[in-house]
Queue: 4 jobs
Job 1
Amino acid sequence: MAHYQAVGNIPPKRHTQHRRPGRGRAPGELYYEELMGEEGFSSDSSLLYHRNIPSTTVRAAVWELPDQSTTPNHPLVPRHLKLHDLFDAKAVRGTDVVTGRRLVLGNGDVRISYAVAAQPSPWYRNGIGDECVYVERGRARVETVFGSFDVGEGDYVILPRATTHRWIPRPSTKDPLRVYCIEANSHIAPPKRYLSKYGQLLEHAPYCERDLRQPDGPLLAEDIGARPDEQTEVYIKHRGSGPGGVVGTVHTLPFHPLDVVGWDGCLYPYVFNVRDFEPITGRIHQPPPVHQVFEGWNFVICNFVPRKVDYHPLAIPVPYYHSNVDSDEIMFYVDGDYEARKGSGIGKGSISVHPGGHPHGPQPGATEGSLGVERFDELAVMVDTFRPLELGEGGLAVDDGLYAASWSRGLGSTAAPGGAHSEG
């Protein structure tokens, strides 16, 4: 995100001496400058000033990741995945956002996981790509080397590749922390069509820089009650020969990772809340790109928010039937009443998988039922991928096996995938 920030203690000129306060006439020790940059020094970057040499480790061990294997969606069928069935109350008590993720869908460009967590996560960084973590329910504090955020329902947390951070759920009497994790093998950014050639969000964009929350910082070990010299483990996800090309390592550092006294640049984590997205509407039905909020390599992220719908006198508010010729469409239903899926069994916490090559659209009766509707009260997060997605172990565990037959109900008995039957 090319929106310059400067936080904490930095020198007036980059790549020059920057020292701690000295004693008497003796100069203080140098801080250690780290460039965190994208695309080999050719894109956005930030400079971080550490108390310690950031390359230092005292131990490395294998992190056995949760199951990252995937199964092709073959034979090709649309699917309904019930994410709220993935974690029971007992499992949640011992789960954290990092090690407790269950893989729902994935391909060589992006992995979608889900976690319901009550425990603080270990320190963690993704060395493969950026992460976009959507907070479905609950609250948490996210601590990073750039600073910290308090996050809650509706927040997208964008974490650039290699950002060391951890998640600390906040106690809630209402909802546990539920997060929908989109892990890229690339960077995640606002759509290019909404940016000027210098990176500013343009006037027709559905959000602007004022809507983005930058981290509060700097954040140092002593600010959270830790010792600066506290030996700390950092969990790292990186490329390797494991399932999906993803493996894990745990590095032990001889110091606490929160040692950045200042930083500046255009690369850092930020938070955007879905309620600040200004929907683009029209007299007739608008196509999904108007709902786009972010993009990565070979995928886009969209959100469908409460909004006024089509106002032509003969408008049909729900989508027309469409074939995903070039993409798989993954819709995560967060809140509200999704008009086009009435009668399908889909509700809050559901995912619909509409694979490329299969035409899909409203359930039977939904088109007529939408006529005259002036407003949709719905909230959903959609990921469209331009390569086929396969099912992770989490997705296979909560597939209802009935969704493919939902357009056939009322036409007689229809066999559904997996041997289940839906009676009309």
Note: Residues 411-424 have pLDDT under 50 and may be disordered.
Job 2
Amino acid sequence: MLKIGAAALALLLAGFGSAHPVFAQEQVAAADASGDAAASPEPLSADEMEVLVARIALYPDELIAVITAAALYPLQIVEAARFLDRYEKDKSLKPKESWDGSVVSLLNYPDIVKMMSDDLEWTQELGDAIAYQQKDVLVAIQQLRDEAVAKGVIKTDDKIQVVKENDNVIIKSASPDVIYVPQYPPQMFYEPDYVWEPIRYYPDPYPYYWYPGATFFAGAVTGAIWAAAVDWDDWGVWGGGWNGNDIDIDCNNCFNNRDFNGNININDVDWKNVDRSKIKIDRDQFNKFDQTNIKNRIEKNGDNAIRDRARDIKKNDKLANRVPGKTAATRDIRKSTLDGLKAKPANVTRPAKPANMQKPAAKPTANRPAAKPAKVNRPAGKPKPAAKVDNRPKKPSGLGNVNRGKATKVSSNRGHQSMGGGQRGGGGHKQIKRGGGGRQR
């Protein structure tokens, strides 16, 4: 686990620097208020957080939402990767019904599942960050997007749309049927000598995970349409059922266990017993549900807040650790799984020690000149989602502690309702305290 330096922590506790953003300071306050700081990881700094999210920062919003939700279930991610390997040989296999809808949704993106399984440390780190620093995760993503847009790295084309809404960069698919995933070296965000380059795309598009035509439609397991969205205005991630009860499908004897002709509501379908080759969906009817519509529907159900789900998972982990006779906590299972992966012939080279996600302190402007041509060795062959971060020495800025643009703006504009002390996620309508404290409204 990455640690913030003792000196930096002392300064934060002392309230040093009025311009310090949401990172660490509010997290420490929340931990102290809950009295459970010892059971929670130390917060990542702004620089560390940006390195953590660099590999997914330019992905479409809805995919970021699914990945961050699924990161809370690292054991299920490992199981899902093994399932996909077996599925290549046996197409009759079905996902486990016990898996979270986010994990089932990610089965539609096998390369991403493999990346998260192979780099389990990164997945666990992201899951912890979502549990304890959700707003910081999203602020860091927006910071990197600001830089990418300013550098011309990403822009609207025939595959994605890049727009600005309420000072936030929104990235979404240009197609209602498929998602193209950007391909880019995340090192360009944090390696000083790395030359910026425009994004490319993975060769094949992925089907929308919530679209019934997707290979592993989440409804096949959860019994309802599962979708995810990011609320950038409230710094929150949402995932779960979005109530598609006004979408009908033409089911012409599509059930394997009974005869049925005519239209049926999509939420009433038993997807475990459906022959997908026999169903028809009115594309015009289904496509009227854009991401804004879906997000609004998801947020109507308070149980879909990922911050609450993360709180409950971490709380259950701690209870399992403390109470004799209980099943081992998730973190123990994660360690066992990780040890097992390391014992196998490695497909991905791992450093002997956990990656030290420190980077040189940021300059006060998003425009960083390239000091010299990049020395980049990219392996040939099939592209993989992101890369393992490198060890980098910490080089303090000569200007002192300079904050990043997006984090500084968020900090300077925050009000009591949106960013009160001890809150995470920014939303005034909910407060989650470290260690699984109760939700406040």
Note: The first strand starts at residue 160 and ends at 165.
Job 3
Amino acid sequence: MATLLYNIGQLLTMDQYDGQVRGKDMSKLPVYENYAVLIEGGMVSKIGPSSQLENEPAEEKIDCEGRLVTPGIVEPHTHLVFGGSREHEMALKQQGVPYLDILKQGGGILSTVRATRETSEQELYKKAMFHLDRMASYGITTVEAKSGYGMDRETELKQLRVANEVGKDHPLEVVSTFLGAHAITEGYKDNPDALLDEMAAMFPQIKEEGLAEFVDIFTEKGVFTVEQSRRYLNKAKEYGFDVKLHADEIAPLGGTQLAVELGARSGDHLAVATDEGIEQLANSDTIGVLLPGTIFYLGKGDFARARDMIEAGATVAISTDFNPGSSVTENIQLIMSLAALRMRMTPEEIWYAVTTNAAYAINRGDVAGKIKEGRQADIVIWDAPNYKYIPYHYGVNHVNTVFKAGKKLYTRGGLNV
């Protein structure tokens, strides 16, 4: 079936550069007005002015009525598969109860670990599918999903299996990451290296069964040191995994520098990255995945220095960090607004950060994040007149219609078809 999108007010193809988009190049965003896109066999077959394409034969012709059209959004950092929820902790946080005290009461991440261990694969699958549906409704078409709420062999494998199953069954593409080194559970407080050894012992099975593409670790004060992270991720690389780091979120330990040293695909959070870390990031292929929703939700700490990173020449992406404890939202559009308001990113930079650069942050730069002839048709029609409107009008869903591989995945309707 062929579908023609015509009378597009503004079209962002994000196809101006080969590879990830660095630094000040992120401010250069060509906009095509009154354009059309022809989709055939799930692929983009033609792009051009509406006047040239509107008579193309197509079973479905959609008058976009001057709306904005962009690539599907790529979500490069989520904790998609988990059991339970932690809404009861919000009142404790409002009362000023420190997180460590919440942990002592059995809350925090340990609550999610316990719930995930106790939840069946079937229930985790159902819950993850629900969240993917909601992500799709916000214009997301490709999603990274981390494990990390088991921190034992059985539960980590269960999370990875669920991520792979929902990836097979849901229209959205799911890219899986093994985050067994997410925290230090009770039995390993005095010997965190033993936990890392247990998680590393899973690498052969994860690789053999194709359960994850990436290995990640939380490099942070009170969690895993730079040296522990280096040793663990080097072993992951020996098994053929690409690596990522939760780095420099709370304490500036040098996680950004370690991500660069290891050639990590991304260093994520980077809220307290130092000048040295930012300089090294800018001179590398490692992508900084910034997560303003976490700082916003927790109500403390500094937002990542996106302006300094971009001006230094770094590649920047942004993400929801969807998880049950520190960023409980699938709304990437809200994160785009936070990037503008709290990290001073321009609309042009934000669009690269949620499409092209986000795709490269999860090794999908050759298939996602652009509208390009011969490429899979992951496309969003927005109820907005221009690309600047999305981060400007915050807190609501601007999506009209989402196409994944040319198939209509979500629609709010109101278009002349």
Note: The first strand starts at residue 2 and ends at 11.
Job 4
Amino acid sequence: MAQKPSIPKGTRDFSPAEVAKRSYIIQTIKKHFETYGFQPIETPSFENSDTLMGKYGDEGDRLIFKILNSGDFISKVDDVTYSSKNSASLTPKISEKALRYDLTVPFARYVVMHQNEIDFPFKRYQIQPVWRADRPQKGRFREFYQCDADVVGANSLLQEVEFVKLYDAVFTNLGLKGATIKINNRKILSGIAEVIGAKHLLVDFTVALDKLDKIGEGKVKEEMLEKGISESAIEKAQPLFSMAGTASQQLEQLRGLLADSEVGMVGVGELDEIISTAEHIGLQSAQLQLDVTLARGLNYYTGAIFEVAAPEGVQMGSIGGGGRYDDLTGIFGLKDVSGVGISFGLDRIYLVLEELNLFPDSLDTSLDVLCLNFGKNEGLAALKLVSGLRKEGLRADLYPTDAKMQKQFKYADKRGVPYVILLGEQELLDGNFVVKNMVTGEQNAYKLDALGQFAELVKASF
């Protein structure tokens, strides 16, 4: 008996309707990327392992998919390493490449390798899949697309403001009103770690804090204790968990909390400038919100950090995020190149639009016109007609066989075709073709030499 086929957990097949909806989101994002002056690049699906490892923190490293070397890779491992059963020492011996975890680190690698070919500041966008060995759940997949935009070679905070505006423009265009753009600054978190006496545990502090909205305050504090952050330090950080009010009120509280931290005060100043400038310019439908507990666990962020939440009432993780990285290219030998970037979570945005019924109805239509098949002679004439309609810009097709009319109409109905053409023996004699509107049932005749007129009427109806 044949084995029942399956796909790996955390991956998906996409139907034609789903692909159409995903393409709608991608094209909307792409349009705004280009409107804001970003240029497209692409990088390989897999990178050398040393390009990726060590760039995302311990948790990120564990989620990187490793690719086994080709050939008899085990024979090249020495007996001591093999018998140790230690994955940390064995993995480098049998795997030299890995699937990319995100698009930012490969982009940094790209910038360093092509630094003599690009003009700085370099604004790039990239829309490609990434892979993470994560536990699959709603809105979290092992294979998913990221839609990234980054600027490198410019340290002006106007870039952060531009990204706030870009998020707002895209979500407004998608009809996703009420999205919340959360913002914080890693310098503020560094300052807090400094003033509470946990500067040496900054990574552990931020990784735990980043889980606040997922596991709650109590669990976050437990994790901090497990990581060696003292109870007294956690108590000093308590204002973080209860900070409220407007952005300006929270910034004022932070100034008091971070008065003895130079780096923390720099972070407060940067946030103040970004938020006040964005508020001065104004947003269309999104809200900009200061969230002092926002940490984002990736190690390369050094300044402003972003995370976008779906409109209130939608249970979904972040649908976008990003931040400033002052020296990401430094890990590949190109020092002092500041950058900032954001990402749109295509798959989660899809789920949110689906839940809120925000996809345009027209996306369900993959074919504008279907011409029925009445036989060999009529079919040849219909094929010529269909070819003419395609030249007029319509998505047109001919049913391939002269099956029963009921079967052909049923096919058109299942495909959601709005117009069906009947071109039988009598129509050929009259020099006409008959069009049936599948929604209203109305039928009209058109001259065979008037395809342009019919095509314009179809286009106008969409």
Note: The chain has two domains: 16-42+108-123+135-356, 369-460.
